[in-house]
Amino acid sequence: MEHSSSSKMERHQEQADLVVDGFKGLLSKYDPYSDSLNDRRRTRVHREKAHISRPEFEKVLFNRLHSNLVPLLGQQIANLSRSLNPTHFQNYLVLTFQLILEVQSKLHQTLNQIESAIETICAHRTTIRSRRVNDQNLQHFKLFRLDGLCRDYTEGLMPEIVDFFKESRRLINLLKIPKKVTESRKDLKSARQCIIDRTSSIMVRINTHIEWYNGPEFDLVQLGWPKETHRIDDSLGELLSLINQAKYNSSVTQAARLLVPLFNYPDCSSIEYRNEG
């Protein structure tokens, strides 16, 4: 009886190790700041079908990203998040590990396709810059949209997903470590909450990322405005602090006071534009 129980525990441990290795593989391959990803970008060769011209090929990729691949990524992250529930491991341990391994495999495929498509589309920026093309009529391939899309993927979406993988790996490792019941429950509850929070952040990021594909240009311009208005407030505070210092002569002080309304104007106008838009 003890031998049977021990063998069962070993099998569970092996499956847990496979799941942890799966997250390690995802992290090493898709961390936007990893050496392996940078090496892959330098050596990747994009193979295009002969009967499809490059602009048409990029348009196909562009549409596939926002209509299929990125939403699919969101679904797979949501499925993985649901599987990473400690109660599932208590009741359906083997099945849950199998489900996680399957989703990990699907995530590899989806992320690889997204990465390749993003690189192809973002390479279009170099063409626009080198040829000094007027992108007025390029619609979805305007430089500012491509810059925002590529930056949002690398600096916004992928870091969130990488952190999600790290939190997921942490939860599985906690399941492997024998602890007191009270400690285990507390740690698992904390890890589970981190996964829930990270999943919510990813869904917001995915919606924002899709906006860079098909959102109105005026809405895209406003995405960064909240950060800019905070900077304006900081700059205005520094200016007012300087004005109030007695060591500055009256002419400088008067000139500085004239600038205060100019600092306030962009903040007010952005609110007005948002309300009208």
Automatic annotation (TrEMBL):
<protein>
    <submittedName>
        <fullName>Uncharacterized protein</fullName>
    </submittedName>
</protein>
